[in-house]
Amino acid sequence: MADNAYDKLKHSIRYWLLRKLPTCQQTVEKISQSMDRKLTLRERINLKLHIWICAWCQWYMEHLQLIRESARAKGAESPDLNSTPTSALSSEARERIKRKLAGEG
Amino acid sequence: MSQVQTTPDALSADAGRWLEEHADYLFKYASFRLRDDTAAEDAVQETFLAALKAYEKYEGRGSERTWLVGILKHKIIDHFRKVEREAPIGEDVDEGPEHTAFFERSDQWAGHWNPDHAPSDWHATPAELIERGDFWKVFNDCLSPLPQRTASAFTLREVDGLKSEEICEILSISVNNLWVMLHRARLHLRNCLEVNWFKHQH
Asked: Are B87 and B54 in contact (CB under 8 A)?
């Protein structure tokens, strides 16, 4: 019974907050900007509260961070040429560059 | 400088060896950023030509590949600049899709996630994703429908970690343009990865 009352209260607070806070559409824009600039205090508070009650936006933020971390790691990856034969320079391009370099040398 | 004058023959020998040792790596590096094989081949060629000209300045300091990648980075940025010059930004710049449908609902929660498009749990780590070649294929395919400038802004920020001011200078855009472009690129890419990759993984 106590649990039930607590859940009801949590539910009401959540809905009350969702009504007061910026929408998900506005929040995802702030989530993106938080990765490129320092948000104002008000923006940070709204973002934190929204994330606290909205699992979807919380996942959204985690996904953007995962994409950034993975893309930066991939971009700085040390070469492992044997594992990715598909992305190797084509032999035509290699020959063309070789001729060009010989001409300049 | 006690170095012996480098002869043209020695230079072309170096050029041949560079191709053997570094061409594939440089090409991979460039095509991940440019997403265009021809542009990536051009950037690699430009890099080797510039390296030949600047060879005396290199003097064997540091790793050869690091030196070549340093030149390639500039060639890639030159390419982004060139694209910008060929298509100068106008009044009605296309910053990318807004995807308003993600937040369309018929109930009282308009502006919040539509459950059909809402994010789900991905259960993934960067370490796992880096290993998956097929993931990066989807990643590239997801970026390609974006406007050129938006995709370039995304790559410079999220792959190379350049600062906002540097990207604005390269692409000749305002910082407000940049934030809108990055937001739209992320919104689009995240959804595209979820639909085309993560939903099939579990």
From this structure: no
